[in-house]
Amino acid sequence: MRARNLEVVLAEVGRSGPLTRAALAESTGLTKSTVSKLVADLLEAGILAESGVIRAGERGRPGVEVSLSGHRVAALGLEVNVDYLAVCLLDLSRSVRHSVRVERDNRGSRPADVLGELRVLALDAIEKAGELGLTVAGAVLAVSGPVEGGLLHNAPNLGWRDVLAAESLGLPLDVGMDNEANLAALGELWFGTGDPDFLYVSGEIGIGAGLVVDGTLFRGVHGFAGELGHVVVSPKGPPCRCGGHGCLEVYAGQEALLRDVPGGVTELVARLRDGDKRAARACVDAGRALGIALTSAVNLLDLDRIVLGGVFARLFPWISDPVGEAMEARLGKLRRTVPSLAGSRLGGDAATLGAAGQVIQRIIADPGPYVARARAAG
Questions:
Q1: Pairing relationship of beta strands 73-80 and 84-91 according to DSSP bridges
Q2: Bridge-partner residues for 86, per DSSP?
């Protein structure tokens, strides 16, 4: 019961923001004495902190607000993508304390080599956390492929199959692992718009998607939901790394966007701003293909909101109209409205934020071990 009450109190602070003990008692239905004891334990564990803001309480009695503490516990978000590695250190108040991204072409590289370099970046982040007085409670690794039972089954753009990626890092803490698009969708949920229902589309060299329904990530029966990049746009189209033909990634992935506009995404954006016709055509073609694939998703899932992330967020001013027009042309007779499109404000940080955020959510859902540890240390 005590463990459950700790979770209830912490979840309420996490959901509502700073609250006094009296307000917590009212919102949770717990007695004031119970709340005071629970808050004292969470303060001792460094999970909550008194904000110093005093609010009027019952009969004019003042109360000091408590909020999630950013001074003791932290979480680590890690990412292996096709062309970069990334690390994000997040404290319990969801403030970014350290972030690094290293451009690296990981295609065809040995998993041990790539994960060895990521391990160095992760250990550096853990050391920085210590310098800041933070203890890293855990980490989650974002990977560009389907994950089940701790195994990265197949990442065709990396050339990896059946890799125990998180375990192979050998970090001195618990490391979970999930699909990059799933974690980016959670990042959007927790750090972006906060809308409880949307489809997040992650545009990188590969294209993935994460579906959030009523504030919860939908994973499918085997956890493989969201492989939008392998929705077939044209059955007779070019071959895809997955073994199929005419997949969305072939037409709208980063490589397709840059095929006729060499120099990287930054160069593509610069050309678009300068009115370059070839760059504009690349976005129109990719946007139309993406719109066709999203039409199938909308018909199947009855979506109202679609968030474009990754490279699509950077290209949103130029790619959103072709996407919307393609959907409207195909959905107009079946739906009164076409889903709204938005560009993610998180950019390339969405997956690492979602990964670290997942650790934080676990702490909020089960603070008991941290409270017990603090009591034992005291």
A1: antiparallel
A2: 79, 101
| H-helix or E-strand spanning residue 76 | strand 73-80
Condensed to tens digits (0 to 9), the pLDDT of residues 38-78 reads 999 999 999 999 976 666 555 556 788 999 999 999 999 99
Which tokens hold the place of 157? Answer: 């753009």
Amino acid identity of residue 117, one-letter, is E
The tens digit of pLDDT for each residue in 327-371 reads 999 987 788 788 999 999 998 899 999 999 999 999 998 888 888
Using the Cα atoms of residue 309, residue 315, residue 316 and residue 322 in order, give the sign of their dihedral.
negative
Assign domain 73-186+350-365 to its CATH architecture. 2-Layer Sandwich (3.30)
Show the tokens assigned to 202.
Answer: 């992650």
- Of the options 3.30.70.1450, 1.10.530.10, 3.40.50.150, 1.10.10.10, the CATH number for the domain spanning 2-69: 1.10.10.10
Listed in sequence order, the residues at least 6 apart from 322 whose beta carbon sits closer than 8 Å to its beta carbon are 283, 284, 285, 286, 287, 288, 290, 291
Token pair belonging to 373? 């540890």
- Residue span(s) of the chain under CATH 3.30.420.40 come to 73-186+350-365, 193-345
Alpha helices in the chain (DSSP H): 2-16, 21-28, 32-44, 111-131, 165-168, 180-191, 248-252, 254-257, 265-273, 277-301, 311-314, 316-331, 350-365, 368-377
**Model confidence, pTM:** 0.91
pLDDT-derived band at 166, boundaries 50, 70, 90? very high
Burial of 302 (C-beta count, 10 Å sphere; 0-12/13-18/19+): exposed
Q: Which amino acid is at 285?
A: D
pLDDT surpassing 70 at residue 378? no
Report d(CA 56, CA 64) in Å as an integer. 9
Give the H or E element holding residue 216: strand 216-218
Q: Answer whether 253's CB lies under 8 Å from 229's CB.
A: yes
CA dist 170 → 112, 120, 122, 160 (Å): 11, 11, 10, 19
Element (H, E) at 269: helix 265-273
DSSP state of 8: H
Do 102 and 314 meet the contact criterion of CB atoms below 8 Å apart?
Answer: no
